[in-house]
Amino acid sequence: MSAVAVEYVFKSSAAGEGEVVVRAERAALFPETSSTAHHDETGHVAWQAMPVLCEFLLSSRGRQLLTSARVLELGAGIGIPGLLAGRVCTELIITDSNDAVVERLKRNVELNMGEMNCSGDAIRVENLVWGAGLFPSNLAHSVDIVLGSDVIYSASSAKSFLETAEAAMVQPGGIIVLAYIPRWPNVDRALYDSIAVMKLSAEVVPLCSFMSKKTSNGHALPKGTCLLLLRRMQDVDDPTEVCIDPPEITRRQYNDDVREVFDVCIEPGNITGDLCDRLLSGIDLDCEGKQQICLVIDATGPFSLTTGKARLLSEVFRVPPLINCTELKLKDCWLSDGWAILTPGLLDCANKLSRLIADGDEIGVTAAKEINKLLLHCSDLKFLGLLRNPLGNDGAIAITRGLSSCSMLNSLVLSHCRIGDAGTAAIARAFPPTLQELDLSNNEISAIGVADIANAIRDSVLSKLTILNLSGNDIGASGGAELGEVLGVCVPKLQQLDLRGCGMTSSGITWLSRAIPACEELRVLHLGSNGAGDEAMNELAPAISRCKNLKYLSLAMNSITGEGTWVLVEDLVNCLSITHIDMKGNSLGDDGAAAIADILAEVKTLEVVDLSNNEIGEEGAIAFAEEFEKPIMEEPFSWPRGLALLLENNPEIVGAARSRLEKAVEDKNPQIVIKVKLSSVTAMETGFGR
């Protein structure tokens, strides 16, 4: 694996120190594609949480912890935090579980030995596999500080990291310093649960106390990025959670000057007894209370809205300013049955709520019953979203009475909620006639459930529907047929239809296609990942040509070949509004590429054509090159907003054909912007991963 030498520069808050430079060797290219569960190579580069840990170690509090301490870094990778710690601590052990990474670590230690406070036997680099049962006895309870950054990347790694760190920490007094960036909610939950199971106290150090909220290359840190100090409960006198950052308050002024809205974003750490006072200090209330509050409670990361905080929050909804809350969103709060505590306070502002969203809140049947009580009082609710919650059929049934009472509801989003046919049937009977958006994506709905939705459509309950999303449900060909019978006749205003990953096959899409021409307002059509082949194009192509407003067509991840593509393009030229065509992941080959190239100039509205991963080779590349080489003879020019042609993951586009295509794009009339994206591999300049 090729390597590059880099310097990581940090600003130290210590008096008189200024910039601190750490020299290191890292891989020239990111090794994600070659890493596997059994052979992890991601330690050859630095990752996004590393600067967070380094900035803390350079702060006055970090240096105080490191002074005279024995330090262990787990999953060190190229070792930058450990190398910084070695400038202050008295003993340092830097570890990783990959032999090649350990060898690179040894070289990085040598590069920085002149700046180390510890030397000789006081600094070691070792191969260390995680797990309490695997921890070497000679290291047990021997270190004061355990460091980790971007080391928790799966649910199992949360447990094994903490077990290993706890086994290494002295008793009493050991501290784990963990820099964490959330990427997957299930991993956040695993870390939160592991901290509780191991009886550790978590102190959240506010990022603003030691660094800016942006990375060294100017990008904002992801929401939920945190620096945790973890101690054994018995070592902590007051195991209270420290507030992460102050509430974020943004003011929006409407043009009519009649009302103004304050967007308020808080985290669980913000929910304390003085929350109202802190909010009031940031909101200039008028005597008539016209201001509206849009509240977001974002617990992204290893945090939770506990029952105690839910009780506090319930009380503050009863008084200004939150009694004027018109929009409420809970994100990854894991409140679950704690809704029984929160709901009584919410009832005081329920008649003002226009939007209610609970995303990743672990809402089951019990919580759904509480939400049902709340919905009965939400007379002005226009948007209800319960995303990524284990509602199941029983939970869906539990909210139906409240749902049917929402006479102003425009949007209903119940995606990723494990709802099956029984739950769908109950919800279909409760649809308010005002509904314009229905999203039941990624549930467990079959053609039987679709039949209940179709019946609601026949009964004109969904006559105002403009957006329908049933993607990620295995509705099969029968489900496609059910929708084909009703959409064009009973949903005249439909603008977006998303049926990706529905297993409709060519037969289902054929049935569906018969309804498409009657959907005169249709603008977006997603039919990807349905196992459809060329035969589906015989009905779909002429149907699309009659959609005068269609802008976005996705047929990605199907089984369409060049033959089906020629059928499609013969009618596609008559679609005078199309801007995006997504056919990635099919089997178009050179013949299909030639078909698309043949009509490019005729479809003047095109902006993006995605043909990535389609077995296109040199002949296909030449077909596009020949099209771009043609002189522009007449106005209006094709592609007035520019054209992006995506040909990634077509590895046979090489050599002279690739060069000719690239040159044809460069030499095109300067009045027309064309971008062709081919596969390439480059190293990121910053040296930080995602």
Descriptive key words:
690 residues; 21 helices; 31% helix; globular; disordered C terminus; 16-stranded mixed sheet; alpha/beta; seven-stranded mixed sheet
Account of the protein in words:
31% of the residues lie in helices and 19% in strands. Residues 681-690 have low confidence and may be disordered. The chain is α/β, with parallel strands linked by helices and 690 residues long. It has 21 helices and 25 strands. Strand 10 and strand 11 (260-266) form a beta hairpin. The longest helix is centred in the C-terminal third of the chain and has 15 residues, at 476-490. Strands 10-11-12-13-14-15-16-17-18-19-20-21-22-23-24-25 form a 16-stranded mixed β-sheet, with helices on one face. It has a seven-stranded mixed β-sheet with strand order 5-4-3-6-7-9-8, with helices on both faces. Helix 13 runs parallel beside helix 14 (447-458).
Helix and strand topology:
Blueprint: E1 3-11, E2 19-27, H1 50-58, H2 60-66, E3 70-73, H3 80-85, E4 91-96, H4 99-111, E5 123-127, E6 145-149, H5 155-168, E7 175-180, H6 185-197, E8 200-205, E9 226-232, E10 248-253, E11 260-266, H7 275-282, E12 292-298, H8 307-316, E13 325-331, H9 339-346, E14 355-359, H10 365-375, E15 383-387, H11 392-398, H12 400-404, E16 411-413, H13 421-430, E17 437-439, H14 447-458, E18 467-469, H15 476-490, E19 496-498, H16 505-513, E20 524-526, H17 537-545, E21 552-554, H18 562-572, E22 580-582, H19 589-599, E23 608-610, H20 618-629, E24 643-647, H21 655-666, E25 674-678
Parallel strand pairs: 3-4, 3-6, 4-5, 6-7, 11-12, 12-13, 13-14, 14-15, 15-16, 16-17, 17-18, 18-19, 19-20, 20-21, 21-22, 22-23, 23-24, 24-25
Antiparallel strand pairs: 1-2, 7-9, 8-9, 10-11
Helix pairs in contact: 5-6, 8-9, 9-10, 10-11, 11-13, 13-14, 14-15, 15-16, 16-17, 17-18, 18-19, 19-20, 20-21
